[in-house]
Amino acid sequence: MPSRAATAPRAIESILRQVSRLWLFLDRFDTVPDYADDEGIEVLRSQDLGDLRANGKFLGLARDSRPCTFFGVDDDVLYPADYCRTLELHLGRWSGATAVGVHGGLLPAPVNSYAHDLKVLHRRAPRQHPTEVDLLGSDSVAFRTSTLRFDVRDWPDVNMVDLSFALTARRHSVPLVTVPRKAYWLSALDENQSDSIWAGVLRDDSRQTELAQELVALPRPPLPKRRSRWPRLLARAP
Question: How many independent structural domains does the chain possess?
Answer without folding.
Answer: 1
